[in-house]
Amino acid sequence: MTNQRPALSSLILYLYLPILIIAFFICSLPSQAQPESFERYQEQKKSFFQRWAIRLNGNLDHMFNTDIDGGGKFNITRLGLNQDAVFTATDKLEVVFGAGFNYYNFDFSGSQGFAGLRPWRNVIVSNNNMRVKYAVNNNWGVFVMPTISYGSESGAPFWDSFTIGAMAGASYTTGPNLTVGIGGFIGSRLENSVIGYPIGFIDWLITDSLKLTALASGARNDFGPKAELSYDLGRGFKVSSSVAYELRRFRLDEKGNFEKGIGEIRTLPLAAKISYTVNKLLSLNTYGGWLFDGSLELEDSSGDRIQKEDFDSAPFLGASITINL
């Protein structure tokens, strides 16, 4: 426990470092202005703060017990905290500072197979990114998004649990209701070579009530490729369904059974969500669904596979709260 506290404080600093830098910049503005320009300075300062929009989300969900091929069972309880701080610099330039923090509790049971290894238990996975979007003209836009990710079991070496990457591309808006884009991602992966793949996305307001988005946050608010179809029922209520691909890799405890090894879980969640917008500041959400095509993998500290097993599809339920500032 004594080694975990410094790591946790460093992780919090890493997650919110961009916000701290912005705050420092703001505080470094002149504290006094000449009398004749004081009102103009106050107006500029007010305008700067009005360019910010902050979205906070907290969620809790549980995947129920499911069988692992080869023997044993497991379930997962997850707590997530996510934030987006959007700064509209100009009519053409927008910068978004995003941070996500997910705490997983894996509960393995059984004495055989993968579960019998008791490979890991408490895991932290987080993603930090800065999305820069620039509108070249009324139709075309470009974007770049560097990312820093962190994944570790409690007790894992802090600095050996990071990966970096970047996403970039271009978007085309055909009208007020449709934007499509294409680009690519390249990045590192724990104890694996550099990976890269193409990306595509769409934001389509099909009708005044029906909307389709891809490469966006689904019900579970995880970082990863997702497609979501939502329908506005009116009176603050909205329903949506999403499908996603989720991959989590994390460093294992340096004093555990598999010293500094790698854990991995892959799933394909199919989810449905009901949202209620209380007011412009607060939304309440409940969601549930099934995790399909799941697998667990255990690797040694060099990334060589020790064991891999599939697990049966499993239901999950959760709830979240969203605050817009």
Describe the structure.
The protein has 325 residues and is mostly beta strands. The chain has one domain: Porin (Beta Barrel). 13% of the residues lie in helices and 61% in strands. The protein has 3 helices and 16 strands. A 14-stranded antiparallel barrel has the order 1-2-3-4-5-6-7-8-9-10-11-13-14-16. The longest helix has 24 residues. The N terminus is likely disordered.
What brief labels describe this structure?
325 residues, mainly beta, Porin, 14-stranded antiparallel barrel, 3 helices, 13% helix, disordered N terminus
The gist of it:
Helices cover 13% and strands 61% of the residues.
Q: Order of strands across the widest beta sheet? A: 1-2-3-4-5-6-7-8-9-10-11-13-14-16
Secondary-structure element order, as H and E? HHEEEHEEEEEEEEEEEEE
Summing up helix and strand content along with how strands pair, one would put the structural category as mainly beta
Task: Give me the number of helical elements.
Answer: 3
β-strand number: 16
Q: Please give the share of residues in helix.
A: 10-25%
Computed Rg: 22 Å
Give the name of the CATH architecture: Beta Barrel
Residue share in β-strands: over 45%
- Shape, principal axes of CA atoms: globular
Low-confidence stretches: 1-7, 22-34
In CATH, what is the class? Mainly Beta
Average the pLDDT over all residues and give the rounded result. 86
Number of self-contained structural domains: 1
The biggest sheet, with number of strands, parallel, antiparallel or mixed sense and barrel status, is:
14 strands, antiparallel, barrel
What CATH calls the topology is Porin
